[in-house]
Amino acid sequence: MSAALDVFSLLAIGAGVFFFVAGTVALVRFPDSLSRLHALTKADNLGLGLVVIGLLPRAGSPLAALKLVVLWALVQVSSATVAQLIGGALRRRDAET
Amino acid sequence: MTVFDALDLAIAALVLGVAAWTIAAREMFSAVVGYVAYGLLLAIVWVRLYAPDVALTEAAIGGGVTGVLLVVASKRLGRLPQPEAGPGLGLKLAAAGLAALVAGLIAAALLYLPDPAPSLAPEADRHLAQTGLGNAVTAVLIAYRSFDTMLEKVVLVLAVVGVWSVAPDRFWGGRPAPLGPASPDPALVFLARVLAPVGLVIGVQIFWVGADEPGGAFQGGAILAAMAMIVMMARLMRPPRIGSRRLRLALIAGPAVFLVVGLAGPLIAGSFFAYPAGFAKPLILFIEAFMVLSIAATLPLLVAGPPNGEGEP
């Protein structure tokens, strides 16, 4: 059972890391700010979500597991907001030029 | 070399790289962003050094509050007429020389520490039971070195007085300028509405668990302060009038309560800033609760700046 959980954690965290790497590559390689923002938010949310899912079986108690999920939700809320704010700022800047 | 050694080396290289980038950045805003990233990386360094209490403070203050302070300051500076020429080469070299001297002295002090380095950690741990606390860092701050911590809080009040003192006379007692733009982005308003209640609970929780686990008054207070700043940026709340009696009471509550309990020490425990045996933990939490209030009030006021007439309707 524990071996199966370990494999599950490994797969989920590995997938999460893949999304982080993909998001970072996109941040460096994509041509304009809006596409970079798009890639970054998607990769970060999905990546962190997968890492949290992978860590859930390793959390010592249900409370610790709940904290991990709350952490992910808080990052979701703030990163979604920041993406909106940066997107809005970019649109205003483009409207000016 | 283990995985952790490689991780530590990578983090150290990243910290140095971001620091160099921050110094070299041409635009003020880029430098501020670099400084915030630097603060967050330092928080990771403290975690790797097994100092989660310091890491929390660094993330909240170095990355968070100082970042907001610098962003607001750079925006206000940007609106002023810019001087023709920046600092000259001589001034830059002198500043670099001084900074290198300080860094070199700190590095030398660290490198010439005797091995094993002197430590009061076992001593602090041995007497932990007497304070009733489970977190040695909180014990050092509020019990062993309580006088120092009290004075630190006085310094925070002095900082606010310093900021206020540059207000023009005719605006004295009024409101500082609002933090955010006149019509904040609806996304920011949404964030303030959703995050502030959650942050309030988390801030109080971090203060409360600080007695036994990493956390404490400063970290909790800084989170509450951040929530107040978000709410002010979303224009859901105006910066308070600096003449307000309630505000001034909140500012001095922490050091004042600390001082009163410390001065009562000779009567109830036999010496200044001593706690009576068996009653230390409730007293410490009592003092800390007021310190949370003062810190949560102080930091947003430092960011809001002096009243300058823009805050009045």
TrEMBL record, chain A:
GO terms for molecular function: sodium:proton antiporter activity. Keywords: Membrane, Transmembrane, Transmembrane helix. The chain crosses the membrane at residues 6-27, 69-90. InterPro entries: PhaG_MnhG_YufB (IPR005133). The keyword Transmembrane applies. The keyword Transmembrane helix applies. This is Multisubunit sodium/proton antiporter MrpG subunit. It comes from Roseiarcus fermentans.
Automatic annotation (TrEMBL), chain B:
The keyword Cell membrane applies. GO terms for cellular component: plasma membrane. InterPro entries: CPA3_antiporter_subunitB, MnhB, MrpA_C/MbhD. Residues 13-79 form the MrpA C-terminal/MbhD domain. Keywords: Cell membrane, Membrane, Transmembrane, Transmembrane helix. It is a multi-pass membrane protein. Signal peptide: none annotated. It is found in: Cell membrane. The chain crosses the membrane at residues 6-25, 32-49, 55-73, 93-113, 150-167, 188-211, 217-237, 249-277, 283-304. The keyword Membrane applies. Residues 190-285 form the Na+/H+ antiporter MnhB subunit-related protein domain. Its main location: membrane. Belongs to the CPA3 antiporters (TC 2.A.63) subunit B family. This is Multisubunit sodium/proton antiporter MrpB subunit. The lineage of its organism: Bacteria, Pseudomonadati, Pseudomonadota, Alphaproteobacteria, Hyphomicrobiales.
